[in-house]
# Entry
Amino acid sequence: MVLLSVRDLRVEFATSGGVVTAVDGASFDVGSGETVALLGESGSGKSVTAQAVMGIVPKPAGRVCGGSISYDGRDLLAPGVAKGLRGREIAMVFQDPLSSLNPVFRVGAQIGEMFRRHRGASRREARAAALDLMKRVGIPAASKRLDDYPHQFSGGMRQRVMIAMALALSPRLLIADEPTTALDVTVQAQIMDLLTRLQAEEGMSLVLITHDLGVVAGVADRVILMYAGRVVETGSLREVYEHSGHPYTSGLMASVPAVDGPRDRLVPIQGSPPDLLSLPSGCSFRPRCQYADEQCAEVEPVLRQLPDRPSTHQAACHHPEGVLTDVH
Amino acid sequence: MSTESPLLSVRDLQTSFPMRSPVLRRTVGQIQAVAGVSFDIPAGGTLGLVGESGSGKSTVARTIIGLEKARSGSIVFDGDELTSLPKASMRRVRRQLQMIFQDPYASLNPRATVEQIIAEAWQIHPDVVPRNQHRAEVRDLLERVGLNPDHAERYPHQFSGGQRQRIGIARALALRPKLVICDEAVSALDVSVQAQVLNLLDDLRCDLGLAYLFIAHDLSVVRHISDRVAVMYLGRIVETASQDELFTRPLHPYTQALLSAVPDPKPWDKPAREQIIIGGDVPSPADPPSGCGFRTRCWKAEETCAHDVPELTTRLELHPAACHFATELAGAAR
Ligand SMILES: Nc1ncnc2c1ncn2[C@@H]1O[C@H](COP(=O)(O)OP(=O)(O)O)[C@@H](O)[C@H]1O
Ligand SMILES: Nc1ncnc2c1ncn2[C@@H]1O[C@H](COP(=O)(O)OP(=O)(O)O)[C@@H](O)[C@H]1O
Ligand code: SF4
Ligand code: SF4
Ligand SMILES: [Mg+2]
Ligand SMILES: [Mg+2]
# Structure
């Protein structure tokens, strides 16, 4: 069953250099209980997509100017709807927990506040519920730490606190935006382990936003790859990683040094990341693409099924045969 | 092993910072950021230095180039003992010893053109490139690092992140160094650009015979570029080996945990790796555990680990590890 459905989403920002289209016609679904990875390099529009779903696109610079987002049949773009669901049905975890926690309130009280505000819990009930949650997310000596302030926690423990707050009201959709990017790799492994465990226990849908192709590999069912505000490839994770149809995806895969096996020379993507203020005509990836031809300059490619691949595997490229035969 | 003396030889290096009490407003102790580190880098070789944040990697680098003062130990670079070198001679040595930082933007003067940034070092070392050749040499350097030589008159903000890092590399190369210290030099770059810069660093090593001290927290990147790798934890090196040996046969429990935590984009290609997830965080170097620094997170820890500091001892050839039980681990690895 589809829980979240995003169609032709467009989000613009007014900047000093002009209007940028941060998300440009993105469409995707998230099924209930599914784990989906939203991938792409910095500036590709991942966070803004999440902001649009949560109804927190920064105003007045940014605005959703097209498309639709529906959650469980409800129109998230209708006034007040996203706000009503935020925290209860849809929750979010950010890269930098310190900036989303209030520095002057004790951690236990901040978690407990969720229950007080939304569930009408008493101070005591809220405290007990906060303690429960802190234990569930693996904070050692939780009862001693209820009265600590955010700065007294390490980065990894703060992220656990954020996850506890996000889970407080048992949301059905959790969006985690680069939840481990600021953490060391051993702590990253702990947090990913925690997120997958909680996802399974709660049966919730999980959208993992990251620039790191490796982090989500053992975790996500499906991937959505973004470039310059557009979805350029989507499909089951293994299918997309093993049979990338878009030159950008296969370029990314070839750019990551291997953890084992031979140390081959890397094959980087040529050129620089796109400048949203001066995108080329047609396909945004064209200046960096070895398969580009005239059609690519004239016609913007749309997502379509790749030849001889499962119907769920789609790429927005005029010439996917190039990559499919060269690389695989 | 070659009998030639290494280009850089670091022995028992210790660097500490005063720990100040905000309440008492005086120094109440020392933070041992680097607690006795030794390694060699041969000419043209690359040593990768890995470890989680706070393990002391940057402090090692900063001490080598003289930005921090060593509390004890020795740093011999190209025959000179740097810890006791007079300032005037340090300038001569620094020519051969350059550093590239993580944040290229912060380390580039925003009001200087790329040409001015690169040529600046030649003001201090006029013998390297005569004045009338500055322009031509800047163009050469820009070309070498993959930038358009016609952009020499531009300012840093007119370049992308990856291009700025190339400017930083060109600046480091301006004095024709023998050793370049890269401190998280590619960590902030998107992977597509990171791969370009890694290839550039590779090419420069081949073409110019550069040696690198390559510091990074990303183990895949370190594996890609290094000949040898040293793993740091709480100010000490806990294991060193050749790149190949370290990644296929890690001896120290911390190295094993680190490797196990490296995200693998294609896990299904390989036999299931043993997942080691260690708990907790790196302890503060202001208050390190007694005995083995890793014992608070180590699943192999025993009584003795709380009392005795394990020495970095060589049980497998050229593969020292600092763990009381590394013999057993070495046996198991065989
Ligand atoms: N608050 C903002 N003001 C202006 N532009 C913004 C803002 N947030 C995002 N953008 C623009 O949207 C683009 C996509 O941003 P984002 O979604 O944060 O990328 P990422 O994929 O790294 O999460 C950015 O390149 C930037 O141009
Ligand atoms: N200037 C300084 N003053 C006090 N403590 C410092 C200073 N620089 C580094 N430290 C401390 O020394 C330890 C090692 O830091 P660093 O060398 O930056 O580690 P790494 O580069 O491995 O992340 C850390 O605990 C850090 O807080
Ligand atoms: S549409 Fe053309 S330019 Fe774009 S990725 Fe495909 S081949 Fe390359
Ligand atoms: S010495 Fe003890 S605590 Fe330290 S790594 Fe070895 S087994 Fe673990
Ligand atoms: Mg983002
Ligand atoms: Mg550092």
About this structure: Chain B has a mean pLDDT of 91. The interface with chain A takes residues 52-53, 160, 162-163, 190-196, 198-199, 202, 217, 219-221, 223-224, 243, 247-248, 257-268, 270, 275, 277-282, 297 of chain B (CB under 8 Å).
